[in-house]
Write a structure and sequence with these properties.
flat, single chain
């Protein structure tokens, strides 16, 4: 009788619940991380931070500039001779998907969401990217891989090294995925998954409709274009080496200026190569040419006061749904005696077609296509200069309306430098995305810890009851 009370009456239920709690607690807190030594756990979580933060940064800077990412994809397709085969809609969709995939994987890694599956996807993604960058490093089809958009420029070799390191990190996470400490319980991870995917796609669509909320290009608001083209005194100059190919008695040899031979040698050819790069100013390819061939760059950029520049790389592909707003702005510019130019790389036929469908009367000037795509991510887009400095940029979807064009421009809000700062924009992003995720994490952890406390309290109560029953017997 005593033996039965000891095994089933007193110890059985208490030991069973304690055993269940002990078996559930490690899975709830950290999966199987406790099975790993502390050294392996440190390595796993260092790799997790490195890979996750890189993915988040890379994906986000692509998402805020979807057209820039599309242009980079088209550069790769051009190197493969496929740019005319793949439609623009497909490359734009690939741009959005690529940025969303990188950003989402980064967030999921940092918060240890679906650890096994995300680790596998990350490893496959990095394996594919490493193969691509190996080809880029060897063949050099593009000068910049575009991994971090226009925010950070890396050489092709640096990109390959970076991807090899990240591939190693992804392999470590694939080896020990449960070594990543989980911040959000499995039952609530769907909230973070859907919120992350929705946020990054909405960010991309918003920046596509308006303009990138972060502008890392040389033509951002606040830049004086002429000053951006200047080469500072004492800046390193590019160095070149010329080699001469000469022939004598049927024998050809190469000579430099230092060992140039006598006149008995016959000149055949020469070649000049750049041996050392010099200083390249942030803006080095901007020019404004009239149709007759006159260069008016200095005249436009050096003018005191305001100037409107309508930007369209190709008028044949430009959105003409808001041409009425453009004409209204041009009429306002005429009324206020503000110069207004349209900069384009279009052919005469495209310009004539645009004039026919929109009734445009403003002058058209020629500028390099790549430069125009860099100036503003909208076709068409509008710039407002003041003393050669960019003070406003608008996409064709967000052009100033008639209510914003009443009175002298120097007295209007659009005629002033915007007060929005990078710090303010970063704060907004933190409040809209990271704060909700952090609050979700805190709520989830609080709920998990409260369950542990309640379970321990219940076990203590059971233990007291059992002890009281034993004493009463």
């Amino acid at each position: 009788m005593l033996q039965e009370d000891t095994t089933t009456g007193h110890g059985g239920p208490e030991r069973e619940e304690l055993s269940q709690t002990a078996s559930r607690e490690p899975a709830r807190q950290n999966g199987r991380a406790r099975e790993l030594g502390w050294g392996k756990r440190v390595i796993v979580n260092v790799c997790r931070l490195l890979l996750g933060l890189t993915f988040v940064f890379s994906g986000y800077v692509k998402a805020v500039d979807p057209l820039g990412t599309q242009y980079k994809i088209q550069d790769y397709l051009g190197a493969l001779g496929m740019v005319s085969v793949v439609p623009d809609t497909v490359t734009l969709a690939l741009s959005m998907i690529l940025s969303a995939l990188e950003f989402s994987l980064g967030i999921f890694i940092l918060f240890a969401i679906r650890r096994r599956r995300v680790s596998l996807l990350s490893l496959l993604f990095m394996a594919g990217m490493t193969i691509v960058t190996l080809w880029v490093a060897i063949a050099n089809p593009v000068s910049d891989c575009g991994c971090f958009g226009d925010a950070v420029k890396l050489t092709n070799t640096q990109t390959l090294v970076k991807n090899i390191v990240l591939l190693a990190c992804a392999a470590v996470l694939m080896k020990w995925p449960l070594g990543m400490y989980r911040f959000i319980s499995r039952s609530n991870q769907w909230i973070a998954i859907n919120f992350t995917i929705l946020f990054i796609f909405l960010t991309g669509f918003y920046c596509l409709y308006t303009l990138p909320i972060f502008d890392f290009r040389p033509y951002h608001v606040g830049v004086n274009i002429l000053k951006g083209m200047e080469i500072p005194p004492g800046a390193p100059q590019p160095q070149f080496e010329t080699t001469f190919i000469l022939e004598k008695n049927g024998r050809r040899e190469e000579f430099s200026l230092e060992n140039y031979p006598d006149s008995t040698w016959q000149f055949i050819d020469s070649k000049t190569v750049q041996t050392k790069a010099g200083y390249v100013p942030p803006i080095h390819d901007f020019s404004i040419m009239m149709g007759e061939g006159d260069d008016i760059t200095e005249e436009v950029l050096g003018k005191k006061g305001y100037t409107f520049l309508l930007i369209s790389p190709h008028l044949g592909k430009a959105d003409d749904s808001n041409f009425g707003d453009i004409d209204q702005i041009y009429e306002y510019a005429q009324q206020e005696k503000i110069p207004f130019y349209c900069l384009t790389a279009s052919s005469e036929k495209e310009i004539a077609h645009w004039e026919n469908i929109t009734g445009a009367e403003y002058p058209f000037c020629l500028t390099d296509e790549t430069t125009l795509k860099t100036v503003i991510r909208s076709n068409p887009g509008l710039l407002l200069l003041k003393d050669g400095t960019i003070i406003r940029k608008w996409s064709h979807n967000m052009l100033p309306g008639s209510d914003e064009l009443k009175g002298p421009i120097d007295r209007l809000p659009i005629g002033q430098m915007p007060r929005d700062s990078v710090a303010k924009t970063i704060t907004s992003v933190m409040l809209w995305f990271f704060l909700p995720l952090i609050l979700l994490t805190l709520a989830d952890r609080t709920w998990a810890w409260s369950k542990v406390v309640r379970r321990k309290t219940r076990l203590l109560s059971i233990r007291k009851q059992r002890r009281g029953m034993t004493e009463s017997e």
